[in-house]
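Lecture notes, unit on binding sites. The following record was shown on slide 14. It pairs a sequence with zinc ion.
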Amino acid sequence: MASSSIDELSKNPLYKDITPHQWPIIYSSNYNIGFLYMEKLHPFDSSKWGSIINFLQQAKMITNDTIVTPNEATTNDLLLVHTKHYLSSLKWSIQVARVLEVPLVAMLPNFIVQWRILKPLRYQTGGTVLAGKLALERGWSINIGGGFHHCSSDSGGGFCAYADITLLIINLFTYYSNQIKKVLIIDLDAHQGNGYERDFMNDDRVYIMDMYNRQIYPHDHQAKNAIRCKIELENYTNDKIYLRLLHINLEKCLNEFQPNFIVYNAGTDILQGDPLGNLDITPEGIIIRDEIVFSKCIRERNIPIVMCTSGGYQRTNARIIADSILNLFKKKLISC
Ligand SMILES: [Zn+2]
């Protein structure tokens, strides 16, 4: 247990306690977005999160009783990071349509947008914040959703409506101030994580390693100034080049910064065939990638780590993410 007082922790409504038989794997059926023909409007498997859990259950790794369900992040929780102005702007469907990049959302009444889209994203955000506490208690934790790395305190975009990574880290600095002073973000989603980069610009407590395809969205040159270890990839980068760059750079960042805590944004839109990521990483490459990260952070250095699943919404992604988590389990990199 962390050194912060129980009184202090009890003030955070997102920090639930879990029982010893529960895995620090966080998921709620409320994560899943589903309405109208959303999937036809966006290259998007909206049941990805539930499918990952189904695969883990079929493999008998977890049951409904052994996973952790998060609370929904409330306006109060979100205000720790977000501006009132930004949160108010989400009351307009046209603004949500811009954030999600689905123009037809602008035509929907806002109560439907809140209920079917933003509420699931607020549950996922609550999950990411909770993952911080559980990783400190158990050494690791996986939020089956979250990883909204394009959203900052005052601006959303790229399907990211809430800045869950910033919230996770600011909550740690607030509630575990004696223990957590240096956080490393390892962002291996195909896209640049410009949201939290804007939030942590010039903040020496946070070291950002970001490996992304430089030829795709968001091309945020100003936010790039926040990246301490920038690895820019070309279109169709393959496993061999990708995994070598990861190995060398992650080792360098861990040795240079010596973090107390790690946030791993494990987007799978690096997968070959992804219409948004434009890289050429195989399913096996993704499994090896996750194993490299957990080996270096947990096995070699024993640093608590949170993993979020972030981008990657092809039909095959859920199976690959589940296989990767099962591989971490098989290799004894994670356990209950
Ligand atoms: Zn992405």
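Take-home: The domain at 47-330 is CATH 3.40.800.20 (Arginase; Chain A).
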